[in-house]
What we know:
This is NIPSNAP family containing protein. Residues 3-105 form the NIPSNAP domain. This protein is an alpha+beta fold. It has 3 helices and 4 strands. It has a single domain, classed as Alpha-Beta Plaits. The protein has helices at residues 15-32, 61-73, 75-84; strands at residues 2-10, 36-42, 51-58, 91-99. It has a 4-stranded antiparallel β-sheet with strand order 2-3-1-4. Strand 2 (36-42) and strand 3 form a beta hairpin. The longest helix has 18 residues, at 15-32. The chain is globular and about 45 Å long. The mean pLDDT is 96.
Amino acid sequence: MIVEMRIYHCLPGRLPALHDRFIKSTLGFFEKHGIVQIGFWTTLAGPSNHALTYLLQWESLAERETRWNAFQADPEWIAKRAESEATQAIVERIENHFLTPTSYSALR
């Protein structure tokens, strides 16, 4: 198993728009493309409270490439994403990390 950690750093005041996009659009596209989410978090304390962190579960990097590329190329998703940013961009930058569990991890 591989876990992908994605951190979306939003422009000030745009985190609610990102939540709305995930709830109304993105999660449905994840389901459509077989993308498995582990969970989503906002930052309670830290350098910025304008971030959304989430984890995705993959069997391999090859699976991730296939499913993620299909999601990103989906014409309906492209339209929904553009619609959500029609008046103003939402995300300033994205970080992502690919994590593998240790032998002593509870999540393997």
